[in-house]
């Protein structure tokens, strides 16, 4: 895979340098907030707050350089500086997945006054080269699907789309309508259907992204071992299966652990029935104690309308992109 080389107008834009942990974290947090304030979710705002706190924590700054390879905060990367001011940033965050060494390119940001000068592309290209120097197996990033300019930039740098996933949230004030389509039943899943459900789960939540956020759908596996595991980890689950005239139509699972928001998982066939999907999600909402605090992620695509019909609204859709051959840069 080859990638374009990004040129930058250095005469007016300033200069690039490595991130300096002792002074740059608060400025980088401010820059990210300026650039993405309209799209930040609670998780994103918490991340920025954590970055600011870490930047002012002397004990953190003392030990952080020794654990750069094991901490997901942006401890390494590059900034673009103009007249003593940080106006551009890219973070490089390491992940270990088995024998694979993966780097996530994150927090690519350019101050609005300095855009269209090639800064973001130059920073990203430099981050990929640094990952290459650290013997990366692959380099990943994610970008919102409503940012076509950034998607094109990353494609020019050799990134290829691997997944497109939407995070959904329940719309407040909408009461679920739990009436079922004719012939459809919502029942507890049968243990003998786990082989089918696990295959459906694996397709919807692919292992290629497991390095970033573990795909813990196997928490629903029947059997005494999983029961004991849930007991020891204080994890509770609920499951609902849909059948149409005896035919398995899918399964919705709910997972909740202490101090974490509840999460829905969907195991659905290759050609899912939209009515069954809507009915299962509505049923889950009607049975949960706190249905307003649900996380639900699923591949972007033809089921979007069925999920909306169950009272969910999209929070964001992320395009996951990979450069699997950084050594060719």
Give structural notes.
By secondary structure, the protein is of the alpha+beta class. It has 2 domains: 10-164 and 320-328, 3-Layer(aba) Sandwich (Aminopeptidase), CATH 3.40.630.30; 172-310, Aminopeptidase, CATH 3.40.630. The chain has 10 helices and 12 strands. A 12-stranded mixed beta sheet has the order 1-2-3-4-5-12-6-11-10-9-8-7, sandwiched between helices. The longest helix has 15 residues, at 119-133. The radius of gyration is 22 Å and the shape is elongated. It starts with 9 loop residues before the first helix and ends in a 6-residue tail after the last strand.
The top level CATH class name of the largest domain: Alpha Beta
Output the CATH homologous superfamily of the largest domain.
Gcn5-related N-acetyltransferase (GNAT)
Tally of separate helices: 10
Measured between the Cα atoms of the first and last residue, the distance is 8 Å
Name of the CATH architecture of the largest domain: 3-Layer(aba) Sandwich
- Portion in helices: 25-40%
Can you tell me the CATH topology of the largest domain? Aminopeptidase
What is the global morphology?
elongated
- The strand order across the widest sheet is 1-2-3-4-5-12-6-11-10-9-8-7
Order of helices and strands: HEHHHEEEHEHEEHHEEEHEHE
Integer count of domains: 2
Features of this protein?
329 residues, Aminopeptidase, 2 domains, twelve-stranded mixed beta sheet, 30% helix
């Amino acid at each position: 895979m080859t990638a374009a080389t990004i040129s930058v107008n250095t005469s007016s834009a300033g200069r690039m340098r490595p991130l300096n942990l002792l002074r740059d974290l608060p400025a980088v947090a401010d820059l990210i907030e300026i650039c993405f304030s309209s799209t930040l979710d609670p998780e994103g705002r918490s991340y920025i707050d954590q970055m600011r706190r870490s930047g002012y924590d002397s004990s953190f700054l003392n030990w952080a350089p020794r654990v750069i390879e094991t901490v997901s905060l942006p401890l390494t990367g590059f900034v673009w500086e103009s007249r003593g001011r940080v106006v551009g940033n890219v973070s490089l965050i390491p992940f270990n997945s088995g024998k694979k060494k993966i780097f996530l390119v994150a927090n690519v940001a350019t101050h609005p006054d300095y855009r269209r000068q090639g800064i973001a592309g130059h920073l990203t290209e430099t981050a990929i080269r640094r990952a290459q120097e650290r013997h990366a197996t692959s380099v990943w990033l994610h970008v919102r699907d409503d940012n076509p300019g950034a998607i094109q930039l990353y494609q020019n740098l050799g990134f290829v789309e691997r997944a497109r996933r939407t995070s959904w949230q329940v719309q407040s004030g909408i009461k679920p309508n739990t009436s079922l389509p004719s012939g459809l039943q919502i029942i507890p899943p049968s243990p003998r259907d786990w082989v089918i459900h696990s295959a459906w789960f694996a397709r919807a939540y692919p292992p290629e992204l497991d390095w970033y956020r573990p795909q813990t759908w196997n928490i629903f596996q029947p059997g005494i071992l999983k029961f004991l595991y849930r007991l020891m980890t204080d994890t509770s689950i609920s499951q609902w299966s849909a059948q149409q005239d005896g035919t398995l139509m899918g399964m919705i699972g709910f997972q909740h652990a202490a101090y974490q928001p509840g999460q829905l998982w969907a195991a659905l066939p290759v050609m899912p029935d939209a009515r069954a999907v809507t009915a299962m999600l509505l049923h889950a909402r009607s049975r949960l104690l706190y249905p307003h605090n649900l996380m639900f992620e699923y591949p972007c695509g033809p089921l979007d309308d069925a999920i909306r019909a169950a009272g969910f609204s999209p929070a964001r859709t992320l395009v996951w992109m990979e450069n699997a051959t950084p050594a060719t840069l």
